[in-house]
Amino acid sequence: MTNPDSDAPVSAYEKPPADGGATDPRCVPQNLDGPPPVGDEITPPVYDEESQENWRFLFQRQMSMLPGRAGEAYLEGVETLGMGPREIPHLKDLSRRMEDAAGWRIARIPGLLHERDFFGLLSDRVFPSTDYIRRKDELDYTPAPDCFHDMFGHMPMLTEPAFADFYHLFGQSALHAEGVDRQSLERLHWFTVEFGLIRQDEGERIFGAGILSSKDEVQHALSDQVEKVPFSVDAVIAQDYDVWHLQPTLFVLDSFEQLETDFRAWAGDRGLLPDGA
């Protein structure tokens, strides 16, 4: 989809909700006003009991649905990071464990970031994360970023070396992308990082954060209601999507090495990777 007044592709988040409602202001990207705190620089907030209860509810609900659905690398990542239902983890503790596993650190950010700030952090192997959790009336769904999605959804996969290397390449490439390449990268991010599936010996499994942190998506993703397409970069970048409803089409990787290798080849051909990457 393109803006009718220009040839620039329009982000899926710039499209209005399908029900005609207004866009949640928390979904409007913010610009950083300086370097965010990273790793041990992060001061943990003091969470009230309702916040801790919300984490416990969400963690236990999602984990109860993941056996037989979530990928092996994701479940191992939850253990590596030491996540559990008792309390919201501190970002600086998760950052230390993630750095030990795959060389990534965590930055605390105020909310949804402007893409240049977001990609700049990824290019330095720094994952941007919020540290506030959704409200009780948003436990089933929130359009805004929160620490449950960031921590539970994203961080376990950043302990998997091949996936972590792909995400680093993605951040580097996104800093150099213009025009249609930006739209291609947006689609690649959606259908891998957020809504990716992988084929294991036991069958198809979920590794995308947008599925794993959502009650409805985790039950929907492996069902017969979803068209599952073998992953290729060309197929993904040709696939449009809508962020406002359950996903009807998903792509299935053979391995995370495939993701890293195929993305590196595509980004290299498009001239998006810096020298030596």
Task: Kindly describe this structure.
The protein has 277 residues and is α/β, with parallel strands linked by helices. The chain has a single domain (23-269), classed as Aromatic amino acid hydroxylase (Phenylalanine Hydroxylase), CATH 1.10.800.10. The chain has eleven helices and six strands. It has helices spanning 49-65, 72-81, 91-102, 115-123, 147-154, 161-174, 180-194, 209-212, 215-220, 233-237, 256-269, and strands at 105-108, 126-129, 197-200, 203-206, 227-230, 249-253. It has a four-stranded mixed sheet with strand order 4-3-6-5. α4 (115-123) packs across α6 (161-174) and α6 (161-174) runs parallel beside α11. The chain is globular, with a radius of gyration of 18 Å. It starts with 48 loop residues before the first helix and ends in an 8-residue tail after the last helix.
Question: Brief overview, please?
Answer:
With 277 residues, the chain is an alpha/beta fold. The chain has one domain: Phenylalanine Hydroxylase, CATH 1.10.800. It is 41% helix and 9% strand.
Descriptive tags:
277 residues; alpha/beta; Phenylalanine Hydroxylase; 4-stranded mixed beta sheet; two-stranded parallel ribbon; 11 helices
Order of helices and strands: HHHEHEHHHEEHHEHEH
Beta-strand percent range: 5-15%
- Mean pLDDT comes to 91
Radius of gyration: 18 Å
Class from secondary-structure proportions: alpha/beta
Q: Supply the number of helical segments.
A: 11
Q: What is the total domain count?
A: 1
For the terminal residues, how far apart are their CA atoms? 31 Å
CATH topology: Phenylalanine Hydroxylase
Number of strands: 6
Helical content band: 40-55%
CATH level 1 name: Mainly Alpha
Major β-sheet annotation: 4 strands, mixed
Name of the CATH superfamily:
Aromatic amino acid hydroxylase
The CATH architecture: Orthogonal Bundle
Poorly predicted tracts of residues: 1-8
The side-by-side strand order for the widest beta sheet comes to 4-3-6-5
Question: What coarse outline follows from CA principal-axis ratios?
Answer: globular
